[in-house]
Amino acid sequence: MKELKIDVTLSTEKKQKPSFDNLEFGKSFTDHMFVWNYTEGKGWHDARIIPYQPITLDPAATVFHYGQTVFEGLKAYLTKDEQILLFRPDENMKRFNRSNDRLCMPELDEEGALSALKQLIQIDREWIPSGEGTSLYIRPFMIATEAFLGVHPANSYQFMIILSPVGAYYKEGINPVKIAVESEYVRAVAGGTGNAKTAGNYAASLKASEIASENGYSQVLWLDGRENQYIEEVGSMNVFFKINGEVITPELNGSILEGITRKSIIELLNYMNIPVVERRISIHEIEQAYRDGVLEEAFGTGTAAVISPIGEFLWKNEKMAVNNGEIGPLSQKLYDTLTGIQNGTKEDPFGWSVQI
Ligand SMILES: *Cc1c(COP(=O)(O)O)cnc(C)c1O
């Protein structure tokens, strides 16, 4: 892989590191950040690693007004013998460019961005926690910086990478969450931006999550925006169901975000010879499976939690328990296998792990 030429300015004062035993997700950041500018006609320029610091933008910058911005999320793991592993980072870069395309943002040089990411992690490697279940969360993102209030794709951008040490998602074993099926608000519609990792989708999702949370539910199960019956995602994770021995996940339809964990779980299930299908699945089918006693397991998938088992669905005032509110054997097995591959304690027959 070609190495991107980066101008490096190291920080003169190292920050005080937080206690790695008790990290809150996304709260502390490492000593350095990567910045890369894009100007129409000139392309990408001024790749640099600088001390972590605030950025200065014109108040008229497009990102503030019209939300032209894209992000990614992945993790680096420190193995027992002090190697640094990334999980399928090329997939994140590909998805970044699919999101960019949807938002009319410039294509990123994927190899260059990956090279920058690796160099930044090397510089801040002391920030990768080593405890069980911990990792360094990586947040690449791009913003439109042109100072202009007309609605059009901006002519200048900044691509940045910041890093944040994160603790174990499950500190006291995996506890299944309670999920409220959302029948008023929608997260995204086919033809919209649901399949792009762009800020507006998350802003649009907050209201329903807030209401669910007030009612004692961790997150919402999103239904499609056209017929209000087909299942899309759970919170900001993809969703899987095990019904009568078969694993089902909603097929990609334009409004569902194409998760890398989702893709990996499907590949893993195929490898384990467990039947898995991608197809439309309605909330009515889930209700029927529950009544028939064949709704065996349900779980969300995403980089942050990897697998998040669901113990109950609330649907029209009816509480539908899944596996007595306990984690199911398949969910546990998938969690152990995938996290094992990611942190280097289990064999990786797929070549997913990339050593820095
Ligand atoms: C990021 C994200 C996911 C999960 O994607 P991963 O690549 O598995 O982390 C799922 N849904 C939404 C809406 C997301 O933003």
From TrEMBL:
Enzyme Commission code: 2.6.1.42
PROSITE patterns: AA_TRANSFER_CLASS_4
Presence of the UniProt keyword Transferase in the record: yes
Reactions performed catalytically: L-leucine + 2-oxoglutarate = 4-methyl-2-oxopentanoate + L-glutamate; L-isoleucine + 2-oxoglutarate = (S)-3-methyl-2-oxopentanoate + L-glutamate; L-valine + 2-oxoglutarate = 3-methyl-2-oxobutanoate + L-glutamate
Residues carrying N6-(pyridoxal phosphate)lysine: 197
Pfam families in UniProt: Aminotran_4
Top-rank EC class of the record's enzyme: transferase
Cofactor: pyridoxal 5'-phosphate
Keyword flag Acyltransferase: no
Pathway of action: Amino-acid biosynthesis; L-isoleucine biosynthesis; L-isoleucine from 2-oxobutanoate: step 4/4; Amino-acid biosynthesis; L-valine biosynthesis; L-valine from pyruvate: step 4/4; Amino-acid biosynthesis; L-leucine biosynthesis; L-leucine from 3-methyl-2-oxobutanoate: step 4/4
Domain of life: Bacteria
Keywords: Amino-acid biosynthesis, Aminotransferase, Branched-chain amino acid biosynthesis, Pyridoxal phosphate, Transferase
GO molecular function terms noted in the UniProt entry: L-isoleucine-2-oxoglutarate transaminase activity; L-leucine-2-oxoglutarate transaminase activity; L-valine-2-oxoglutarate transaminase activity
Protein name: Branched-chain-amino-acid aminotransferase
